[in-house]
Amino acid sequence: MTQIQSMNDPEMTKSRSSEFAAIPSVDRLLHDPGVIALVETYGHSATSDAVREVLADARSRMRSNEKVGPAQLHPDTLTQRISERLETAAAPSLRRVFNLTGTVLHTNLGRAPLPPEVIDAITEAALQPSNLEFNIEKGRRGDRDDHLESRICALTGAEAATVVNNNAAAVLLTLNSLALRKEVAVSRGELIEIGGSFRIPDIMARAGCRLHEVGTTNRTHLHDFANAMGKRMALIMKVHTSNYVVEGFTASVAERDLAALAHENDLPFVVDLGSGSLVDLSRWGLPHEPTPRETLASGADIVTFSGDKLLGGPQAGIIVGTKDLVAKIRRNPMKRAMRLGKLSIAALDAVLRLYDDPDRLPEKLPSLRWLVRSPTDIAAAAERLMPQLKAWVGDRGTVSLQSVESQIGSGAQPAGALPSTAIAIHPSGGKRGQGTRLRKLNELLRALPLPVIGRVENDALVLDLRCLDDEDAFVAQLAAESAGLDTP
Ligand SMILES: *Cc1c(COP(=O)(O)O)cnc(C)c1O
């Protein structure tokens, strides 16, 4: 009997309408003890919405001729489905994950995590009124920047500082404040794009400036800049080419020379440093990243950098430089649209205070701790975790230790790799369908209660253990799954 015939069969139609009648009413379900308990947790409005959705779902499945038996319409089953729906809807969108990508400051995974003393400062600022824009001593209006400026100046040697939401905003605001309707000279080798649509030429256009490209992609000389100087030129800009290296026959102009040329022409010299570490990373054996202090010392009038890259703090864009120029930037009405929120101010202030004791920074700042973590320590962690990963993978693949190189990330030092150890999972089976099986394994790791994010490299799933702090939680969820238990 075909389906069309069955639909026309009066007996069938009758039995279907009695099937529909078996669906309990919204009202009846709302009086079910299980659902009453859900109302306690999630409130009446969300719960009755979920009840309606679950019942509508049952009805629509019946309509599409799916078999919906009495067990599926039992109040306990329906309550279970209502509960799951409410739980999913109430879950936060932002979730903790394990960053095993090997990229420490991973923009897509939230960059720098914050230490407990910084969380305390955020909590304090969030819970209570504060002197965010109030001068307690004088009893009048204060400025947000007052909470950060002197500390940033002390750490960079700058005369003045101001802070905005991120470094992209810092660059946009600086250009708009100092070069509106005028030209900005930038080397062609520095017209960068940073992941997620930050492109110097686009920012320049939106800031209302005309980009004057100087030199060529691989080589730019001082005389190229000198030739570009003219009436409409507002400033010379240098962009730290943080996420790539141009190798081979290259030339770029030293900051000191660019600063001298800018100053000869009465123009400011602006440097977008990107990551900009506040301390010299080479003291911990890491590749040297230019610091704002060094850049200012070589003649920059304004330097911009991020708060959540090598600095290890919250998302922020920091602008340091001369008093006059910073004052001009601060006066720009756009500053108001980019100002930092109080939680970020509290966080940035707390992170900067950790810099009073630079020797202990790697203990305090999680991102720095991961960056300086020794290869032997990572290798030991990998050895410890092998059995658990083997058990979890089972016959889906083979598991092995692999020497890898981690990256700082967020554009810092693309060439400066950090030796590390990963657990690599090669999916079992032949070449055919290997890509699919690899994707499946990757999906399973992402589907864990605390999603595990690795990277795919040479037909293997690579889990770099550099940034794994909480081995217990990592192991617990693997063990729970291997045993076929419900994960906590
Ligand atoms: C990262 C970066 C930016 C953007 O900074 P955000 O803080 O992500 O807005 C701008 N310029 C350079 C050179 C960078 O490396």
The small-molecule ligands in this entry are: pyridoxal-5'-phosphate
Main beta sheet: 7 strands, mixed
CATH class of the largest domain: Alpha Beta
The CATH architecture of the largest domain: 3-Layer(aba) Sandwich
Number of discrete helical segments:
22
| Number of E strands | 17
Query: What structural class do helix, strand and pairing data support?
Result: alpha/beta
Q: Span from first to last CA? A: 48 Å
Short description:
The chain is α/β, with parallel strands linked by helices and about 500 residues long. The protein is about 45% helix and about 15% strand.
Overview of the molecule:
The protein is of the alpha/beta class. It has three domains: 14-90, no CATH class; 98-106 and 371-481, Alpha-Beta Complex (Aspartate Aminotransferase, domain 1), CATH 3.90.1150.180; 113-362, Aspartate Aminotransferase, domain 2. Helix content is 44%, strand content 16%. The protein has helices spanning 3-8, 10-21, 26-30, 33-42, 44-63, 70-73, 75-90, 116-127, 149-156, 167-179, 200-206, 222-228, 255-264, 292-297, 323-331, 334-337, 342-354, 361-364, 366-372, 375-393, 434-446, 471-482; strands at 98-99, 134-135, 140-141, 160-164, 183-187, 193-194, 198-199, 210-214, 233-239, 269-274, 302-306, 317-321, 397-406, 418-427, 452-453, 455-457, 460-464. The strands form five sheets. The chain has a seven-stranded mixed beta sheet, sandwiched between helices. The protein has a four-stranded antiparallel beta sheet with strand order 13-14-17-16. A two-stranded parallel sheet has the order 1-15. β16 (455-457) and β17 form a beta hairpin. Mean pLDDT is 91; it is low at 1-7.
